[in-house]
């Protein structure tokens, strides 16, 4: 099953074959910002209509502010890509220039935002599916969870393979939206502007007659919601190592292409939505004239209304736009499925996250990070019922935190470079780069303050809590690894050997596993060798003694009394007495264990051994050795094809061959 879902494993030396061209890197790393244009305009309109239709005149200015900000951030991150081609993006920039704590704040914010990216993108994609097939509305959460699992499985197959799969929906979405915008605006210029199905509806305002500060806050909140168009912009800077050489230059060009396409699509959709008089509201029942049941029927998304107005509802063009939009929104989560594992691997290498996140899977992808992201995103979707409106309030706070600290770090980076550079031409170039990043830092910092102020009470407070908690957890993981590393550091001087080694073989019956364990223990030539059993049943103990004498085994058999029928405590007490005999003595406990081939057989064997082993592992100067005995179910060889085992006295060495 694993081979069917994931594919055959790849050798480590084939890592170079998974590097990406610009054509594949664009849909892999840029699907999030490209897809955000499908709902960024809608989020602006949803906020402005809280005050009624009278405030839609602000939409063009809010959209223009988002476009300017997007252009500045793209230009800023092109500087990051060229200055830090090793990957890590905002985390590396902040860590190197502002200190480890700032780097961890950025990392925590990005990890939270990547989880939000998956949840919001998948939920928005399902929204568009429901716009085409409203009967699926009751199954929203199940559809979202199924898509998250499908994305996880696809990414476990490897970055390059998932890129090939995700490339065509991305390019189909871009071309489809460009055609829709061109046709719609062309009709408007010709005097036949498309009209949205909601153009004649009215919106019942939640807050009417806004002026002064209240109007400014509404505008700022609309701008903050529209800034969702910037999510995922930094993903390319995190994934520079995944590009083909020259890595930094290819990544910078891909980022430029992403920025140009995203700005074009966002500006086109926003303009067309205003031309077509699209009406949307946060609560469907606030739409006066809505034809369905506002308590159960969902309203169509902005892009669905535009497709219906331009191509006609029910037309092939309408369903093509909705299908590609749903696909690109779902695949936008793929940006996070590449960014989160990559960042997690870097943090694990720096010992801020468990080392398992730095391990590549069968297909050379960071499988553990992919699975962790999918589980967290699915849990978030379930907690918020797959609602884009509720999830979007938690969005973009983390990404603008990383934007701001990253650009501040780049300003310090250029200051250091200027202090060491004397060439006038190079200094002019450095001054230009610093100006770009300083502008980016100022704008993203302002947006961060706006987002925090306008979205805090609408759910953003959860992110404000999550980021410090994740920051503290990463610091705790680093302290643990540092403490363990210091504890494991060898002391100066020569290797100190134990004074004596006491071997203890646990015995329940005289059978082949017991004889094998005795033989292996004797082969290590310990100072003392004892066979140890715990007497729970007097008849069983008598049988064991009789079998021991009949075999004429020259290893002393020690029987421990257990009036409360417990095995573990008597063995621990006996081992403790052996340790007390000498402070430099070592006790080695040999435990015969059965190796079985079926999962249910494991439930029937080795349970006492597992409990005892768990306790012995916490005893100082005690080693635990498992001596496996393979039962027939553990392999497919014939019974007479097994290796022979010494059946006589354990004093003789075990046979070989």
Structure description:
This protein has 657 residues and is of the alpha/beta class. The two termini are 36 Å apart. A 5-stranded parallel beta sheet has the order 5-4-3-6-7, with helices on both faces. The protein is built from 22 helices and 7 strands. Helix 18 (512-523) links the parallel strand 3 and strand 4 (528-535).
Throw out a few tags for this protein.
657 residues, alpha/beta, 22 helices, elongated, disordered C terminus
Explain the layout of strands and helices.
Elements: H1 2-6, H2 22-48, H3 59-83, H4 89-98, H5 100-132, H6 140-156, H7 159-189, E1 202-203, H8 212-226, H9 235-238, H10 247-275, E2 287-288, H11 302-311, H12 316-349, H13 367-383, H14 388-391, H15 397-420, H16 424-455, H17 461-488, E3 501-506, H18 512-523, E4 528-535, H19 538-551, E5 557-561, H20 568-580, E6 586-595, H21 599-602, H22 607-616, E7 622-630
Parallel strand pairs: 3-4, 3-6, 4-5, 6-7
Antiparallel strand pairs: 1-2
Helix pairs in contact: 2-7, 2-8, 2-10, 2-12, 3-8, 3-10, 3-15, 3-16, 4-5, 4-15, 5-6, 5-12, 5-13, 5-15, 5-17, 6-12, 6-13, 7-10, 7-12, 8-16, 11-12, 12-13, 15-16
